[in-house]
Amino acid sequence: MLELRNVSKTFGSVVALSDGNLVLESGSIHALVGENGAGKSTLVKIIAGLYRRDQGDYLLRGESVDFTSTAQAKNAGIAVIYQEPTLFPDLSVAENIYMGRQPTNRFGRIDRKAMRAEARAIFERLGVRIDPDRVTEGLSIADQQLIEIAKAISLDARVLIMDEPTAALSGNEVARLFAVARSLRDEGRAIMFISHRFDEVFELCDTITVMRDGAYIATTPAHETTIEEMVRMMVGRDVATLFPKVDASIGDVVLHVDGLNRAGVFHDISFSVRAGEIVGLAGLVGAGRSEVARAVFGVDSYDSGSVTLLGRALPAGRPAEAVRRGLAFVPEDRRKQGLVLDSGVARNLTLAVRDSLRRFGLIRTRDENRLTGIWATRLEVKASAMDTVVGTLSGGNQQKVVLGKWLSTEPKVLIIDEPTRGIDVGTKAEVHRLLSDLAGQGLAVLMISSELPEVLGMADRVLVMREGRITAEIDRVDATPENVMFAATQQKEGAR
């Protein structure tokens, strides 16, 4: 269906893609994997017509193509479904699907009845229930992605590219998306699936292509390789362990939460985190984990209960006071809640400590750069300069900048929500190593993660939430995938 041969792309002196090779076959789901910066995004943008290749061949159904716009690629049957859908929130589902090409009646007016009927027929074909008349605002990310898929089908796209589609989805939503992807494959479409979640790659995909440093490494049938072999090809080295947890001396209680309640969100939340301890907060998406973290930090309010930091009550709803007292919070959505995307690395790294840098109301650039240099070096932030716009960095480097911003406050407690969401395997290991080192230096860490291996690999204790309540507390030595999931779903062990 689609083939790239030795495709390259440079931006000035930067080689983004040096040797891109890819073959997508009809009736097959093909995984594209690699670390951030491996060239995956550049490859996708060339396929989608956003970039023009410098060299190499691009064949679609056996014929050479050279798209100069995304519109040309769409008209040729190529659709890209991104991690974060880009829909018009104030328009209906049907209007989003047919935006710019609405069916018209004989008077030249939009035929809304026909538009709704066509949208409904597509959703029935996909086996999902979404009201075409519903306004898009407020729909879940999962439903928004299905709208993007419906849009692609309405265009009769034969090649669908799914870029990190499951990053913000719950288990049930992932299962529904996979069922849709398989039905599209069975219709003879070619699907490319990009993900950092290896269990999903092996569950869904027929073939895997690995990229590293802008170049093609290998393509192999999924059933003929292993996660270990794939990781070795991705990073060019053996990753001895993704979870380099070292034993730390557990000290006194630093953070204590007692009886925290918020109507309809969470109920009777009580736990403690000690110095040098990593406490994992596990559970399914929607269990209330992030909401608890935001309430503890003071971003959101709560109805009753208390938060104690270093033996003193922490006032509710005052995050600035929480920071001043030694609490730091790395949010789940780093792009919307953790960074100022159009500012440079230095400005972002010093956001939380700007008051301490002021002298007579002014901040000297050399003071800002000195502090920036310390954390950029320690965290190995890969940027050409400290004034590089953060929005242009890879996901892993953006996460390092957010971490550096909060670690520069010298916190006593770090709350980190989804520490490795959307970042590659090599950077994951770096983040895990950093968290382990910080705990070894006495930092108390509350880590929220939807990745069960991450929780089991890094946490000294695991707290499990379900429907706004803590349903289990499990020590590291006793924690298994089975008992954590039983607590998260309230299943009884041995239940089918």
TrEMBL record:
<feature type="domain" description="ABC transporter">
    <location>
        <begin position="248"/>
        <end position="492"/>
    </location>
</feature>
<dbReference type="GO" id="GO:0005886">
    <property type="term" value="C:plasma membrane"/>
</dbReference>
<keyword id="KW-1003">Cell membrane</keyword>
<dbReference type="InterPro" id="IPR003439">
    <property type="entry name" value="ABC_transporter-like_ATP-bd"/>
</dbReference>
<keyword id="KW-0813">Transport</keyword>
<dbReference type="InterPro" id="IPR003593">
    <property type="entry name" value="AAA+_ATPase"/>
</dbReference>
<dbReference type="InterPro" id="IPR050107">
    <property type="entry name" value="ABC_carbohydrate_import_ATPase"/>
</dbReference>
<keyword id="KW-0677">Repeat</keyword>
<feature type="domain" description="ABC transporter">
    <location>
        <begin position="2"/>
        <end position="238"/>
    </location>
</feature>
<keyword id="KW-0472">Membrane</keyword>
<dbReference type="GO" id="GO:0005524">
    <property type="term" value="F:ATP binding"/>
</dbReference>
<dbReference type="GO" id="GO:0016887">
    <property type="term" value="F:ATP hydrolysis activity"/>
</dbReference>
<protein>
    <submittedName>
        <fullName>Rhamnose transport system ATP-binding protein</fullName>
    </submittedName>
</protein>
<keyword id="KW-0547">Nucleotide-binding</keyword>
<dbReference type="InterPro" id="IPR027417">
    <property type="entry name" value="P-loop_NTPase"/>
</dbReference>
<dbReference type="Pfam" id="PF00005">
    <property type="entry name" value="ABC_tran"/>
</dbReference>
<keyword id="KW-0762">Sugar transport</keyword>
<dbReference type="InterPro" id="IPR017871">
    <property type="entry name" value="ABC_transporter-like_CS"/>
</dbReference>
<keyword id="KW-0067">ATP-binding</keyword>
<keyword id="KW-1278">Translocase</keyword>
